[in-house]
Amino acid sequence: MSHDHHTGASATLILATLLTLAFAGVEAAVGLWAGSLALVADAGHMVNDAAALALAAGAAWLARRPPSPRHSYGFGRAEFIAALVNSLGLLALVAWLTVSAIERLQAPQPVQGGAVSITAAIGLAINLLVAWLLSRGEKNLNTRAALLHVLGDLLGSVAALLAGLVIAFTDWTPIDPLLSLAIGALILVSSLRLLREALHGLMEGAPFNLDPETVGQALAGVPGVASIHDLHIWAVKAEQPLLTAHLVVNDIAHWEGILVASHTLLAERFEIHHATLQPEPMTRTVTWREPPEHEHEHD
Which fold has domain 212-298? Predict the structure, then answer.
């Protein structure tokens, strides 16, 4: 991947972030003035998305920093920490929205439907523009996640727009807190998923797209390998899995060929490009024959 490509992706993310943030400020201000919780909820959603976009841009920048002797893995872990902070902020927002919406349903407040509709419509247009910018750019985990956020945002803007129109034409104000609860539910689902991924990564979990059992069996199938133990798979940053394993080999003299075959298998089949493999000789028995078949069944 060329540097220009990276710079392009980052520039797109930064532009998308600024657009989203600038408008979220406008939306929150109008929402508070017009008395619309749905608009404030959508602004909250947009701020979160801007945070997600900013984190994506920041993580892309940090991840490009070369590893140092002190940080030998580089700074990819920043993505997980960012995602953790982001998801906790979101959960706080959902809690506030829920409480506010329930209060509103008990004591309805007047809402300026017209102002809400116009603001939400502009928000929708900005979200469409950001989605278009992101979908044109280069696809990686970060930009894909950012695009998903923006699509969730589109739904939020549509909900706020609906609330504004319903109030403008019918004066039925409970639609506003009801739709803000719907936006809250949207945010809740995405933030819980984000929280799970962040915690899983920080707890050194094996990436969800890799099954350690399958990887272990594949490695054990490399010619010359008798068995595998101490297999560890984790990731410093998303899409960059690391692996360590001890390989018990039939003949240590063939280690070089086994090593090449193992690295090739890991790279081609599992996209694992950073593996540390340690050879161990078979424990010598008095006889040199192969063990009988039935002994293998207990492995």
Answer: Alpha-Beta Plaits (3.30.70)
Q: What is the pLDDT of residues 82-110, one digit of tens each?
A: 788 878 888 888 898 899 899 888 888 88
Round to whole Å and give the CA distance between 11 and 158: 27
Enumerate the domain spans of the chain.
3-202, 212-298
Q: Tens digits of per-residue pLDDT, 171-194?
A: 888 888 898 898 888 888 878 988
Q: What is the CATH number of domain 3-202?
A: 1.20.1510.10
Q: Taking the mean position of all CA atoms in its chain, how far away is CA 162?
A: 30
Question: Radius of gyration over alpha carbons of the chain, in Å?
Answer: 26
- 96-147: pLDDT as tens digits: 889 989 988 888 888 888 888 998 999 889 888 888 887 876 666 666 767 7
Q: Provide CB contacts within 8 A for 75, sequence distance 6+.
A: 62, 63, 65
- Residues 143 and 131: beta-carbon distance below 8 Å: no
**Residue 68 is encoded by which pair of tokens?**
């140092």
Sequence-ordered list of residues with C-beta below 8 angstroms from that of 228, at least 6 positions apart, any chain: 216, 219, 220, 245, 246, 247, 248
What's the predicted TM-score (pTM) here?
A: 0.71
SS3 state of residue 203: coil
